[in-house]
Amino acid sequence: MTSSSPDIRAVIAGTGGYLPEEVLDNEAIAARYNLDTSDAWIVERTGIRRRHLAAPGQMASDMAAEAARAALAQAGIDVSEVDAIIVATATPDSAFPSTAARVQAKLGVKKGFAFDISVACTGFVYALSVANAMLKAGQGRCALVIGAEVFSRILDWTDRGTCVLFGDGAGAVVLKAEQGGERGVLSTHLHADGTHGDILNVDEVAGVVRMTGREVFRHAVSKLASVVDEALEANALDKSDVKWLVPHQANRRIIEAMGRKLGLPAEQVVMTVDRHANTSAASIPLALAEATRDGRIQKGDLVLMEAIGGGLTWGAALARF
Ligand code: UT7
């Protein structure tokens, strides 16, 4: 049933993260895969020091379900209340059933709907946007929005230019429809330009990630800067209103550039790339989970999220926690 109301706000009621047990630092990954690289190069160019890798047989839906359980627990919401599950992933368990449907079964959710979104590293922002719009349209009152990735399964472990950059993990938020109030998702801003599909893609034959890093970097800096402006302008907000920047975690240099653009001190920019590497669609919800659990993000704080990824796709979301 749908019952649209302009006053409905999709409030982030809980967050959760899951990281697989195995942790490999830069030296360990170089040694394991016999890579011509160094800890110094990786840290200087990316900020990455280590990453988590899924165990053999551990799937995106396994990690997604763990993150979702943690988010529901933090929100104090029972699985029986969940109406919708949206999973952003570029590494689904299989083409179908969707990873979201598998999560539904693993959690024991008995009602509602579930589907995946495939938008690479921008996936969480897209999923949040879709979930927000659906809740505002009355299509459910409680949604799990999850980013879950096992990028380790789609990496070319002989390509030092990509394989050191990614990690596995999952993050989730519980979105709850509330009537009125100040809290909730304020707006989302989505973009795609398929003409740049070849600079960051999964090779159709080999099935592994290929990236022209420098080109992606160039697009990232300009497109993220412009979508952040777009988000602030749409809400008549100034950059000084932003309490926390929670960016997609691909590269410390890009994250710091965005922090400088917003005039935010480093303490107000949530950074996990050093410990998680790039977990694609999982990186923003993992960072949200960390920063809500350690007490940084508080109720009422204005949080700006932004991401860019394969497609190219990019986007931003503003939410008051
Ligand atoms: O999540 C989706 C969005 N993705 C991104 O935002 C990623 C954006 N791009 C980047 O973060 C950076 O471009 C990289 C970290 C991927 C690469 O850094 P860079 O400063 O742009 O380096 P580069 O690709 O221009 O490569 C510089 C040199 C090259 O050697 P030559 O040609 O100058 O001799 C590479 O072969 O570094 C070499 N290189 C490495 N050396 C040691 C590339 N990867 C490695 C490595 N270890 N792992």
- What is the overall number of helices? 10
- Rg measurement, Å: 18 Å
Mean pLDDT over all positions = 97
Shape descriptor reads: globular
Low-confidence runs of at least 5 consecutive residues: none
Helix fraction by DSSP (H/I, runs of at least 4): 25-40%
Q: What distance separates the N and C termini?
A: 27 Å
User: How many strand units?
Assistant: 13
What's the SSE blueprint?
Layout: E1 8-18, E2 22-25, H1 26-33, H2 39-46, E3 50-53, H3 60-75, E4 84-88, H4 99-107, E5 113-117, H5 123-136, E6 142-150, H6 160-163, E7 168-179, E8 184-192, E9 200-202, E10 209-211, H7 213-234, E11 244-247, H8 252-261, H9 273-276, H10 283-293, E12 302-309, E13 313-320
Parallel strand pairs: 4-5, 4-6, 11-12
Antiparallel strand pairs: 1-7, 2-3, 6-7, 8-13, 9-10, 12-13
Helix pairs in contact: 3-4, 7-8
The structure holds oxa(dethia)-CoA (UT7).
Description:
The strands form 4 sheets. This protein has a 5-stranded mixed β-sheet, sandwiched between helices. It has a 4-stranded mixed β-sheet with strand order 8-13-12-11, with helices on both faces. It has 10 helices and 13 strands. Helix 3 (60-75) packs across helix 4 and helix 7 (213-234) packs parallel to helix 8. The mean pLDDT is 97. The protein is an alpha/beta fold. Bound molecules: oxa(dethia)-CoA. Residues 37, 41-42, 45-46, 121, 160-161, 164, 213-214, 216-217, 220, 250-251, 254, 278, 308-309 line the site of oxa(dethia)-CoA.
Q: Brief overview, please?
A:
The protein is an alpha/beta fold and 321 residues long.
